[in-house]
Specification:
It is elongated, with a radius of gyration of 34 Å. With 249 residues, it is α/β, with parallel strands linked by helices. The protein has a 5-stranded parallel β-sheet, with no helix packed on it. A 5-stranded parallel β-sheet has the order 4-6-8-12-10. The protein has helices at 33-36, 55-70, 76-88, 92-98, 227-230, 232-245; strands at residues 7-12, 15-20, 120-124, 127-131, 140-145, 148-152, 162-170, 173-178, 183-191, 194-198, 210-218, 221-226.
């Protein structure tokens, strides 16, 4: 006979025996051990913005930033900072934040930024301070003779991503302020003078904006500094205040 527990009982040759029946598959049963080892089981879908960015995707964003600079949408400082952020991006969401306020490439109505008309800056026994905001598409010249010249390139428009400057300091000083993250190439000579570059080192292999300076210093000083080294105390105070305020509501 068959018991309620699924046993089959009988008699054969005077002996009593029992046979356990195999349980049948029932709906709602727990998965087997082999099924639980499926690598796809329980896998969560990764949000698109959390997908890791590739090198090609970073380079695409850098090219989009360069085009935006040509169209006058980004200053030299903005181009440099966003380029640095693009190379440091980890996810696709990070890259989207960098270009969220830019139109797609080839957007209609884009016009080049106004050209920088004045390209020669000099100070003879005096001072000359210029904040350049126009489009730089030609070489700049700075001359100081017993005077001081300060050129601020952070607000300039640089479509090519490269700026060339010829600097001459004769018993005077010339300072060129560049955005954080640019690469600076300094050449020339100094006679009883000094030529200095105080900028954060650019990461090798990254396509960052470049400032090329050909300097002649005769009993004078030529200095190229980035925003970090130009006003370190003010920058430190600004950073402290922003951290103290915390994220805006």
């Amino acid at each position: 006979m068959i018991s309620s527990a699924g046993r089959i009982a009988g008699r054969r040759a005077g002996h009593t025996f029992e046979v356990m029946s195999q349980p049948s598959s029932q709906p709602g049963r727990s998965p087997s051990r082999l099924e639980s080892q499926d690598p796809q089981a329980g896998r969560r879908e990764v949000p698109p913005e959390s997908v890791r960015a590739s090198d090609d995707e970073r380079e695409t964003v850098v090219e989009r930033l360069r085009v935006a600079s040509v169209e006058g949408r980004l200053t030299f400082e903005e181009l440099t900072l966003r380029t640095e952020a693009a190379y440091s991006a980890v996810t696709r969401g990070d890259l989207e934040k960098i270009t969220h306020d830019l139109p797609g490439m080839g957007a209609p109505g884009a016009q080049p930024a106004p050209v920088q008309v004045q390209r020669r800056f000099s100070a003879i026994m005096g001072d000359c301070k210029e904040k350049i905001s126009g489009r730089i598409d030609a070489e700049l010249t700075a001359l100081s003779v017993m005077g001081d010249v300060v050129l601020d390139l952070r607000g300039a428009q640089v479509p090519s991503g490269e700026v060339s400057i010829v600097v001459t300091a004769v018993m005077g000083d010339v300072k060129v302020i560049v955005p954080d993250g640019v690469a600076v190439e300094l050449s020339g000579y100094a006679v009883m003078g000094d030529r200095r570059v105080q900028v954060r080192d650019a990461v090798p292999g990254q396509r960052v904006p470049v400032v090329r300076v050909r300097a002649q210093a005769i009993m004078g000083d030529v200095k190229i500094v980035d925003d970090e080294h130009n006003a370190p105390v003010r920058r430190a105070l600004t950073t402290w205040w922003e951290d103290r305020k915390g994220p805006s509501a």
